Amino acid sequence: MSTGAVLKAVKVAVAQVPVAINDVEANLATVLGTMREAARLGARMVVFPECALTGYLQVSLEECRSVALSRKSPELDKLRHRARELDLVTVVGYLEQEDGRVYNTALLVDPGGNEGQYRKAHLPYLGADRFVTPGSNEPVVVDTGLGGVGLSICYDLRFPEWARCLTLAGASIIAHPTNWAVSAGYVAKILPQARALENSIFLLAANRGDDERGTEWFGGSSIVAPTGEVLATAPRGNHLVVSEIDLSLARRSKVIFEPETFELDLYGDRRPDLYGRIVQ
To answer: DSSP class of residue 277?
Structure first.
């Protein structure tokens, strides 16, 4: 859980940017340029799509390996430098390689020095996810200047347990890089709102709105409030979506419709003793 001083009203952004399959240099240029534009617009945080640095629709493990980055790759050092330069919390997806294995990874860089790396735990049979190793990490929440930021990737959002674990670990914001195709557009419309509302957190979903190897990405990147209200969203195409959020509204688990008559406690009313089937 975040322990430092937390800002209240801040601007955040989701970057619905085009991605060139297997062209890290071009994609890094897009990300670095978009980071600068987000900062120019006053954003303190920006989230990029899943596999934004590498592309996603690889057709073999060998192709994934050919483009995968290590955590110490110079490309990621350039991203870290830009995040510090701009004072911009940045979340970006890429294919990561370590010890001969490839992971679908999201990296969070906080200009204050903290960093978090999350390897996608829930893998659909699609694109690079057919070949990567599933992450075995516990839910990752990074203490940033904006408070606790939890990391989630694409298919993870279909599992409400994941978002709840991030919330219980102290997240006020869930950063969600994703690649939702047009055929999964209903997911972009429904699940960000549902996960934000049921956990009383902000959810920043960064999708793509371009095409890759014949697949059309839906767009629909969004910034969602703890009430489930969509503060900003994007149609298909390339867009940088910016919205101001009030961080003091996050994690208000107690909902009082009428004092002492109609009250809810989204965290306190849980019954973990009855949820054993979840872990079976």
So the answer is: G
Q: Which long-range contacts (CB under 8 A, 24 or more apart) does 119-124 make?
A: 120/153, 120/154, 120/155, 120/156, 121/156, 121/162, 122/155, 122/156, 122/158, 122/159, 122/162, 123/155, 124/154, 124/155
Tens of pLDDT, residue by residue over 205-224, are 999 999 999 999 999 999 99
pTM for the full predicted model: 0.95
Q: State the Cα–Cα distance between residues 272 and 58, nearest whole angstrom.
A: 40
Respond yes or no: is residue 78 known to be catalytic: no
Tens of pLDDT, residue by residue over 15-28, are: 999 999 999 999 99
Those residues whose C-beta lies under 8 Å from the C-beta of residue 255, and which sit 6 or more positions away, are 263, 264, 265, 266
- Residue among 50, 63, 96, 212 flagged as catalytic: 50
The string of pLDDT tens digits covering residues 148-157 is 999 999 999 9
Q: How far apart are the first and last CA of the chain?
A: 28
The span from the CA of 94 to the CA of 71, in Å, is 10
Question: What CA–CA distances, in Å, run from 44 to 147, 151, 169, 227?
Answer: 12, 17, 22, 22
**Which secondary structure element, helix H or strand E, spans residue 137, and what is its range?**
none
Q: Which of 51, 63, 64, 120 is catalytic?
A: 120
* Mean pLDDT to the nearest integer, 241-254: 96
Token output for 243? 């919205």
Average pLDDT over all residues of the chain:
95
Active site residue 120: yes
In this prediction, residue 4 carries a pLDDT of 46
Catalytic residue among 78, 154, 165, 244: 154
Active site residue 51: no
- Going by their DSSP bridges, the two strands 9-16 and 239-246 should be labelled as antiparallel
Supply the pLDDT for residue 232.
98
